[in-house]
UniProtKB/TrEMBL annotation:
The lineage of its organism: Bacteria, Pseudomonadati, Planctomycetota, Planctomycetia, Planctomycetales. One of its GO terms (molecular function) is glycosyltransferase activity. This is Teichoic acid biosynthesis protein. It comes from Schlesneria paludicola. Pfam families: Glyco_trans_1_3 (PF13528). Transmembrane segments: none annotated.
């Protein structure tokens, strides 16, 4: 049995969903300590509650980086300023704390999902580090087909990815799309989305409603457009509130969310890699709605549309004609999804990468677990 330290970014639910997918498999043979900030901690605390502890999973809260919003729009300058403050003040303290914990508990492997402090500490303590995230797409993938604005963003953000996880022993990039790797990045392992066990177990059906997952800063004008569509829509992410036209607002409940996702006709949502991947895995066409300033999600949305499995537009540009076009083309999207069936689960490949690194770092651990 190996001891694995696993840290993650805290913004949104995608990082935590990936971690939970792997944790549910790894905990059968290994001891896990999960380090989660903010949204990720809230998500995982429902999966691993302190009053019902899992013998092989410990969940600990850490500080993390966050996006900042002004007037319901992503504020890049504030987010960058907050990141610089974190790097100067919080990061050195966290690295020191992690070094002490590593010295005390001696993990066999560190895994990180776009969290900077644990891999820095692990590198200084000579513990192997495996990076498993979506952000390596920006660094390692050939994104030359993107529009120039998004290519520039990917190039710029590549420096941030390097800063977060530089020096890792190996890297896995999880994404629902897989253009070729750039020269010099052939060592990065490309895998599909990491599908949570409850999503993998779901049996998709074609219901009469759409499912929508939106961020809390979604403009009311977008909700009004959706409400006037004339199709029942179950909305997650905005909390409970009175119905609005054809919209029903649902509280966050992971089991019910998966049930509704599996039973919907199609999905209209923010363009995070995890939810897009789970939707495509279940055969659901997607209307991807990234915020204009959320360039990473705009890249996801671009590739989704290029694959022919959905439609993409910036959230702020949504209009009634685009909504109708999405509905009209649902049969075409479904046919393409059927053709791509089996492409949207990278869980097994990722577990192979984890066990491969563990066996090379400490063969005795895996032979004992097996």
């Amino acid at each position: 049995m190996a001891r694995i330290f696993y840290s993650m970014a805290g913004e949104g639910r995608g990082h935590a969903a990936r971690v939970r997918t792997l944790a549910e498999h790894l905990k059968r043979d290994h001891e896990l300590v999960l380090f989660a900030p903010d949204d990720a901690y809230e998500f995982l605390s429902r999966c691993y509650p302190s009053d019902r502890p899992d013998p092989n999973v410990r969940l600990l809260r850490i500080p993390g980086l966050r996006f900042h919003y002004t007037g319901r729009k992503l504020d890049l300058m504030k987010s960058i300023g907050s990141g610089l403050h974190y790097a100067a003040r919080e990061l050195p303290r966290l690295v020191r704390a992690f070094r002490r914990r590593i010295q005390a508990e001696r993990p066999d492997l560190v895994i990180t999902d776009f969290e900077p402090s644990l891999p820095r500490a692990a590198r200084r303590e000579r513990v192997p580090v495996l990076s498993i995230d979506h952000q390596h797409v920006l660094l390692a993938y050939d994104l030359s087909s993107l529009p120039s604005e998004l290519r520039w963003y990917a190039w710029l953000m590549g420096f941030a990815v390097r800063w977060h996880v530089s020096g890792q022993t190996e890297a896995v990039a999880s994404s629902f799309y897989s253009p070729p790797l750039k020269p010099g990045w052939e060592h990065v392992r490309q895998v599909g989305p990491l599908i949570r066990p409850e999503v993998a177990a779901a049996r998709p059906t074609d219901g009469d409603y759409l499912l929508s997952y939106l961020r809390a800063n979604t403009p009311e004008s977008v909700l009004m457009l959706l409400a006037d569509l004339g199709v029942p829509i179950k909305v997650y992410g905005l909390g409970e509130r009175p119905p609005m036209g054809s919209l029903t607002f649902c509280p966050i409940h992971e089991t019910q969310f998966v049930t509704d996702l599996a039973g919907c006709r199609a999905v209209a949502c923010a363009a995070g890699n995890q939810l897009l991947g789970e939707s495509l895995y279940l055969g659901k066409p997607v209307l991807a709605l990234p915020e204009t300033q959320h360039h990473e999600q705009r890249i996801n949305a671009y590739f989704l549309q290029q694959m022919g499995v959905g439609l993409a537009t910036e959230l702020e540009s949504l209009n009634a004609d685009l909504l109708q076009r999405f509905l009209v083309h649902l049969p075409e999207y479904r046919r393409e999804l059927q053709r791509r069936r089996g492409q949207f689960d990278g869980t097994a490949d990722t577990l192979t990468a984890i066990h491969g690194l563990l066996s090379r770092a400490n063969p005795r651990v895996l032979s004992a677990a097996g």
